[in-house]
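Sorry, any thoughts here?
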Amino acid sequence: MADILCDADYEKFRTLIYDESGITFSPTNRSILDSRIKEILREKAISTPSEYYALVTKDPEEMKYMLDCVTTNLTRFFRNQPHFDAFINYVIPNVVERKKTGADKKIKIWSAGCSTGEEPYTIAMIMKEICPEGFTFQITASDISLKSLMVGQKGFYADSKVDGIPQNYLEKYFTKVEGGYQIKKEIMDTVRFDYHNLKNDSGARNLDVVFCRNVLIYFDENAQKAVIDRFFEAMAEQSYLFIGHSESLFGMNTQFEFLKTDWACLYYKK
């Protein structure tokens, strides 16, 4: 099937998406961008890419919609278990040790690029299990996809989506309903979903842990560096950053320290 984007249209949309979000479409994934734009035109009964480009550049809500459509939202509960092992056995014990003598007993966690909510809910269930007495926790879950955030806010997952959740967690924190599982209110109440474009400052400060896994791969080096610097600004001293197992800050001029634990590798703000 012929591409709907000619070279000029491809360059216009590619540049626009990069400028607005930092997401990069290279020649190797041009077909993905082409198919997403084609789907939007079909949905909105718009004849040409140029016509849609004119619309999206003057309508901020349409811009949000397009960015939502071109992002990839792949996730699952307890994805990359070694990260959660490091979180349980190393990160949270160290955060608790740092905070135990101070007045602030709230552990602040950000799941950036949370997609449909599996990651922040995984973190919430774990924190329910391991958060010490006298401490509380707050999880912010953000994404550029409004559709994904709405799924997360509902907290309902089809049977096929709960694979990988330990049976004791499934029984304790979910209710079986027709067609799938509903996360219980006690978990949903600990997660705040928020629309956020990582190209911008979130306004968050003094975060203890940031998860941003399998997001940086969609950015070029300049956009990656800008995102990482904003994370550093948002995080407390002696805090921890998780990125995807195929992602690395190696070669990037960043203030984070590489940290190798017995369970997984992550990054540390000293």
The chain has ten helices and ten strands. The chain has a mean pLDDT of 94. The first strand starts at residue 106 and ends at 112. The two ends are 52 Å apart (CA to CA).
